[in-house]
Amino acid sequence: MAEPQDDKEWVVIDDDPISEESSFYGDEDLKASLESAVAAFSPLTHTFTQPISYPAGDTTNRTPSSKTSEPARMAPKPLYNPYEGERAAWQLDEPIASFLARLPPLTSLWTAVGPWIWVANPYSDRRATDSDLAGYTDVGTAILSEWESRRKTVEGEMAGKAKATITRRLGPEKKEFEEKLLAKAREKGVTSGKWMLFPSAARVNETWAAIVTATVAGQLGSVAKVATKGFEDGGSDTRLICVYTDDFSDMDDVKRVLQKLVEMDLVGGGWGIYYKCDAYTHLGINSKNEWGFKASLYSSKELLTAMNKEGRTVEGGKKRKGATGDLTDWAKKTKTKASKEDDKAETWDF
Fold first, then answer.
1. Measured between alpha carbons, how far is 245 from 240 in angstroms, rounded to an integer?
2. How many Cβ atoms sit within 10 Å of the Cβ of residue 16?
3. Please, are residues 306 and 252 in contact by the beta-carbon 8 Å criterion?
4. What is the pTM of this model?
5. 59 partner at 20 to 30 Å CA-CA among 187, 241, 304, 338?
């Protein structure tokens, strides 16, 4: 179903309110237009006013069950949705089944809905923040310029040396510059990031349904989004789903969300996923960037191995269906396919 058939006025946002990462598809004109849209608008600070109605007799539960959601038991505070009134997003009074039927990502057209379909965690404390994006962009650009100058100096000093030798020489310094960028991002409050999943088109509806259900129950991050039909890279058979966390440096939360995705059977069994911070996106640090920085911060393979060493397992100690051995064995088994997913993630311009 590509477009809701109703007479309501909808607020339509054509891009990501958290970052410009929707630019990973399309030609240069499209990328420029999407980047301009992000710079000019943020649903997190915009007031949506359009109500949504549902068919008579629709009595499906419209909030998560307290039996399945810890936040529902703990928090009497009002639910909050930064996308209330936006056509391409779940609404607080909308049954999950109705939302999924209204906007199935497999058939919802980019031209009718926009590039993304959104769902927010109604229990999240995320609100419009005091982040200084302009300040971060300025200082980040200066750091990148400094790194580029240093790299050229070293390359000049080592002219005639093998490329691998120069790369090894620059490695420690590049790491220091990467750390400077991330430190400034935290200082300026530009901290959001996301785990990226690439389900096939054939599985995108069921994968998205699982993500939506867990997000609305308060079990994942603050926000999730899925690419719509036609917003693919040259007819690719995969779709992108992003599951956001509020702070890329909050490793407990980053690992918690990954662990939940493992429990949901969305990670493992031969495939890995990657985490990127929006701070890099704002600076244009994407695949094949001119500074030679890796666009992603974490991989599921690396973190699962670390979590196993820490004695952590999936929630309740359960193993993923069909999985054998501990998380280290599991992570090792993902190596070949995970490397292919890394190539794909790094190819798309986020």
1. 16
2. 25
3. no
4. 0.70
5. 241
Tell me what pLDDT residue 235 has: 59
Angle at 55 between CA 53 and CA 60, to 5 degrees: 95
The CA-based angle 233-234-240, given to 5 degrees, is 25
* Mean of per-residue pLDDT scores for the chain: 75
* Confidence class for position 292, pLDDT limits 50, 70, 90: confident
Alpha-carbon distance of 288 to 180, in angstroms, equals 20
CB 15 within 8 A of CB 39: no
Residue 224 sits at φ, ψ, to 5 deg, of: -140, 155
Give the integer Cα–Cα distance in Å for 148 and 327: 39
Task: Give the pLDDT confidence of 254-289 residue by residue, as tens digits.
Answer: 999 999 999 999 987 667 899 999 999 899 998 788
**Vertex 136 angle, CA 132 and 137, to 5°:** 120
CB atoms within 10 A of CB 128: 12
Cα(104)–Cα(107) distance, integer angstroms: 6
| Cβ 124 vs Cβ 245: under 8 Å | no
Q: Does position 87 have pLDDT exceeding 70, yes or no?
A: yes
* Alpha-carbon torsion, ordered 96, 98, 104, 108, to 10 deg: -130
